[in-house]
Amino acid sequence: METLVQILRREQCSLVVRDASGRVTLYNKKGVRDLENLLDHEPERLRGACLADKVIGKAAAGMVVVGGVRSVYAEVMSRKALPLLQKAKIDYSFGQLVDHIVIPAGDDRCPLEQIVASCQTAEDVVGTLRRHFQEMKQKKNK
Q1: Which residues contact 59 (CB under 8 A, 6 or more apart)?
Q2: CA 25, CA 83: separation in Å to the nearest integer?
Q3: 99 Ramachandran zone, left/alpha/beta (phi>0; psi -120 to 50)
Q4: What angle do CA 86, 95, 22 make, to 5 degrees?
Q5: Contact partners, residue 13, CB within 8 Å, separation at least 6
Q6: What predicted TM-score, i.e. pTM, was given to this entire model?
Q7: What is the rounded CA–CA span in Å between residue 26 and residue 15?
Q8: pLDDT digit string, tens, across residues 15-26
Q9: Interatomic CA distance for residues 34 and 46, integer angstroms
Q10: Whose CB among 2, 21, 115, 122 lies 3.0–4.6 Å from 62's, allowing a Cys bridge?
């Protein structure tokens, strides 16, 4: 995991994934977009993977659990992510543990954290996010 953390910091990317075969890939999209893309298009990359991420909140934790990730490190991790990771027995570590994720431009809570706040399971988190992303796509196309 230390190697992944070093890559995350050195390359200033948002996510580093080492899949079960040992292949390391770097990602740079904001928020959970890379995790969403992996879940939708390359789920095998997540099964048994180790990953280092800039931020893991409850939304990202749900995706990590559903994806079958083995271990995760986050520079910043939300306390709300912990129950999902613990229940799935995913090894986790973090640089900083916070009560909630805030958006970089202020003190407002991350919208995705608010959207999944009432979710009880990782599957519920992912389902809620998928519905939200679909609604956003439909609004954008109008």
Answers
A1: 32, 110, 112, 113, 115, 116, 125, 129
A2: 27
A3: alpha
A4: 70
A5: 7, 26, 27, 28
A6: 0.91
A7: 6
A8: 999 999 999 999
A9: 11
A10: 122
